[in-house]
Amino acid sequence: MPGYWPHTEAEIAAMLEFLGLRHIDELFASVPEALRLSGALAMAPGRPEPDVLAHMRSMAAANRTLVCFAGGGAYDHEVPPVTAALAGRSEFVTSYTPYQAEVSQGVLQAVFEFQTLVTRLTGMDVANASLYDGAAALSEAVNLAVGTTGRSTVWVSQGVNPAWRAVLATLASGPHHCLVEIPLVGGQTHWESRGDAGRAAHGDAPGAVVVAYPNYLGCLEDLAEARRLCDRTGALLVVAVDPIAAGILRSAGSWGADVVVGEGQPFGLPLSFGGPYLGLFSCRGEHVRRLPGRLVGETVDSDGRRAYVTTLRTREQDIRREKATSNVCTNQTLMAITAAIQLGWLGSNGLAEVATRCAQGTRYCRERLLALEHVAPLVPAPVVREFAVHLPIDAALAVDRLAEEGLLGGIALGPPYAEDGRGLLVAVTERRTRAEIDRFATAVEKVVR
Q1: Number of domains present in the structure of the chain
Q2: Which of 235, 270, 284, 441 is most enclosed, with most CB atoms within 10 A?
Q3: What tens digit of pLDDT does each residue of 257-305 get?
């Protein structure tokens, strides 16, 4: 049989029967007909490999390249050639989980450096060897907080990325965590559900309070207020940070966070149609034994030489999942090493420069858009490197029209952020030039008329 076919006809039939489907095409019913391949590729069989590659390149050349102003958790940042070159070395790309420390010292040291860099970024005591993505890291942080406090009620700001909240809700259904969403008012979390009033409104006092810094709309949150709320209720403070903005903001750890999580994609990882990405996870030292995944530690070998090992990691994560304290049994080592290379290349000053350039571009872009007739701020709270505006037309329609102009114009916002569906979330990274921002503003003026 030509090619590789991973499933037998019997296996496919069993899957379809279990799902109650008659044909495999029904699995893809939600994919528009125009996007489906209706027949075989228009290519004669047996063509030489160079000819096939040339044909594929010609097909790829027909794709439109859009200038990206979308964010919402995944960003079009610059990936320096040095990062791609070093992270693509075979000793990193082909390595597997470092079960045997004696033959994995290079990878283990690289991950140890990653952990060190994450703790410096977040202001925390300890970081793990990474997780799958930011949403998974948030879920693990809630597990840690619930396990520590013994209380299953979790207060979650609606300023946390809605995709993360959806994952959290899914993973919280098994252990029966009670998630209470706290709304935004003026772009910031309105902690009206606090103290005795909060217990009366939402049941038990929380075991965890979750807030984003900055939040999904790009607005700065008052972490001091969240910390005071946790002090009154005995909850752990979980902060989801934007790791680029962390280059110029006061660290979440210095505000009193107990656990800090984030999405590490901006550190050397391209958008790549959604992954693989990288979950950042750090916490205070007293919670280290509830740390999910694995931790790389530094020690000495029998000859007194510096050595690295995986520590605080249970085999239950791998072979007895029902006894595991976490749903993670491996980690994103290559992604973590890539992030460590990117952070090492930038350094503290370089990261601050990237964050500053993003903030400056955001301010300029926001001013250009707000100068347009009938375009207004969606919320009044101060922003850092992402912002939301209110358009005079449906935002989803505006995004479609901007795509025709060669621009990925942002993310259309609906409830709870924009009840009328006219909110647009815009992100500006260091890759966006002044000319591109001017072109974007001109296109927005055209499409909203």
Answers
A1: 2
A2: 235
A3: 999 999 999 999 999 988 899 999 999 999 998 988 889 999 999 999 9
